[in-house]
Amino acid sequence: MKRVKAPFPRLSRGKGAFTRTRKQVTNCGTRDQAKAAAFGQTRVMRVTVLGASGRTGIHVVRLLRGRGHQVRAGLRSRRRAEEVAGLGAETVVADVTADADDLVEALAGSEVVISAIGAPDPDQASVDLVDRDGVITAIRAAEKAGVSRFVQLSAQFADAPDQGDRLVRSILMAKQISDSVLRRSSLNWTIVRPGTLTDDHPTGHVKVAGHLEPGRVSRADVAAVLVGTLEEPLTQNQGFDVIGGEIPIPSALASWS
Ligand SMILES: NC(=O)c1ccc[n+]([C@@H]2O[C@H](COP(=O)([O-])OP(=O)(O)OC[C@H]3O[C@@H](n4cnc5c(N)ncnc54)[C@H](OP(=O)(O)O)[C@@H]3O)[C@@H](O)[C@H]2O)c1
């Protein structure tokens, strides 16, 4: 895999909640803990979102902050920092195609990584570089950084990629490989495989199952599913499809199998 020295400096490392000790993090955020309690969570988690500037990633950051979690927004480049400005997240450059050691450093201190990254260009080289090799680099970096949990935004049919046009096939095959590396990793994993993504408003309702008929689902609802997995133990070490549906997201996650 090509390794390039990360061209961008960290953005706000050294100033955010992630740089506090575990004790300080536990004690510091009374307001965050109140938000967490309001959602029935046991505690605030330190979560890094990869692809935080993306159309799904930004919903993930917003939802995590709304639940009181301590969030590090991983950005491919500082050029997208304004996308997450004002959401209360620490920002860090986390380019999964750049230096692997820099990525380990970017993930250090996180308990959870949620990856919402996707190749920026619609061609096989970009897909292989980001969705396959880049995600594998992120999984390995998470292991090295002592992360416990990795939640991966994959795609419906990534576990049966022999369909669609050539580009769709290459995306599904790239995801099939990185998903399989995640399943075999030492991390506690969840693989979320949504149908076609839309920018529709969130409904708070989805359909979740091991395998589903082709469908559509909004990025906002997928983000709520990704975040919801942190609160539902049944999603640990599991992969499942998600499309639009009628079941409230927490119930769908609690009864998907
Ligand atoms: N489109 C669909 O119908 C569909 C269906 C199922 C699953 N999916 C998958 O869902 C995921 C999210 O989709 P989306 O539409 O929300 O994606 P998106 O808006 O294109 O966002 C992708 C994110 O990945 C980041 N990224 C790209 N290259 C990176 C790198 N080298 N290192 C770190 N971050 C990088 C982008 O950063 P920049 O902002 O700097 O570009 C952006 O934040 C993708 O993996 C996609 O394949 C899509």
Report on the structure:
This protein is α/β, with parallel strands linked by helices and 257 residues long. It has a single domain, classed as NAD(P)-binding Rossmann-like Domain (Rossmann fold, 3-Layer(aba) Sandwich). Helix content is 37%, strand content 20%. It has nine helices and eleven strands. Strands 3-2-1-4-5-6-10-8-11 form a nine-stranded mixed beta sheet, with helices on both faces. Strands 7-9 form a two-stranded parallel sheet. 47% of the residues are buried. Mean pLDDT is 89; it is low at 1-17 and 20-28. NADP nicotinamide-adenine-dinucleotide phosphate is lined by residues 50-51, 53-57, 76-77, 80, 94-97, 116-118, 120, 130-131, 134, 153, 155, 171, 194, 196-197, 219.
Pattern of helices and strands: HHEHEHEHEHEHEEEEHEEH
How big is the Rg?
A: 17 Å
Number of helices: 9
User: What is the name of the CATH superfamily?
Assistant: NAD(P)-binding Rossmann-like Domain
Give average pLDDT, whole number: 89
Low-confidence stretches: 1-17, 20-28
Question: What is the C-level CATH assignment?
Answer: Alpha Beta
Q: Could you describe the largest sheet, including whether it forms a barrel? A: 9 strands, mixed
Question: What structural category characterises the helix and strand content?
Answer: alpha/beta
